[in-house]
Design brief:
alpha/beta; 2 domains; five-stranded parallel beta sheet; 9% strand; elongated
């Protein structure tokens, strides 16, 4: 797997840890791209808001492609801007290209041109292309109209915010993966406290995990309530894309 320069990467991102919920078909399409079974798709564009799972799926695809001996390039554009658009060169020689955070290209014509050429080179070599942004291609403010057109060539899939049941399952699985005893009553308390805000919910869960370890306490409702009540704004969260879902 090719990780250009020093980018942040979620080591836990894989298809097994992704709770598909209502997005089972989208997950299947992404997996087909990763496994080289999507020759009919010139590209696949995922769009959705915070916590919808875009970054997780792109990183899971790169991981799966690499497991199959098909090197993959994960390109989170927000992290790459400081290095200049030249960083996009040469990635068409891998087995899968996944470009994340396309929203940051609005107003950056040099980057748009560089991505346009990468798209063309990868397409010529029949390299699967995955893209992700908060908005669909038609709503991206891109000066390069040809790039916006190409981004719409393949499938365009909207990822919706996770439902309450999906949030429950994601946190439940995270606890299992870490070997934590998370009582059902505690889990449902957390969901009521932070309803359907997966990024905030996962941040809170990580905080509770650390507090539980430090105090040597189980994650009971009374203990969790003590930790949560320290935050005067439990429903607030910073702007920006959260750690990948799952």
């Amino acid at each position: 797997m090719q990780l250009p320069l020093a980018i942040k990467w979620n080591e836990a991102a894989d298809f097994q840890r992704f709770v598909a919920g209502e997005h089972a078909e989208a997950v299947r399409w992404v997996r087909d791209c990763a496994e080289g079974r999507a020759a009919h798709l010139p590209g696949l564009f995922l769009h959705g808001g915070r916590g919808s799972g875009k970054s997780h799926l792109l990183q899971a695809a790169c991981r799966r492609a690499s497991e199959l001996g098909r090197p993959a390039a994960y390109l989170p554009l927000a992290q790459l801007l400081e290095y200049g658009y030249y960083v996009l060169r040469g990635h068409e020689q891998v087995g899968l290209v996944a470009v994340d955070e396309l929203d940051v290209l609005e107003g950056r014509e040099d980057w748009q041109i560089a991505l346009f050429h990468l798209f063309n080179r990868a397409s010529d070599r029949q390299v699967p292309l995955l893209f992700a942004a908060r908005k669909p291609p038609s709503q991206l403010t891109l000066k390069l109209a040809d790039l916006r057109s190409r981004l719409s060539w393949g499938g365009v899939v909207a990822l919706q915010p996770p439902t309450e049941s999906t949030c429950l399952e994601i946190v439940r699985q995270r606890a299992i993966n870490r070997g934590l005893d998370l009582p059902e009553a505690t889990l449902r308390y957390l969901i009521r406290r932070v309803p359907r805000d997966l990024p905030r919910l996962l941040t809170l869960f990580d905080e509770l995990d650390r507090a539980s370890l430090a105090a040597g306490r189980r994650l009971t409702v009374p203990f969790v309530r003590q930790i949560v009540d320290r935050d005067p704004h439990p429903d607030s969260h910073p702007d920006g894309e959260p750690p990948p879902r799952g």
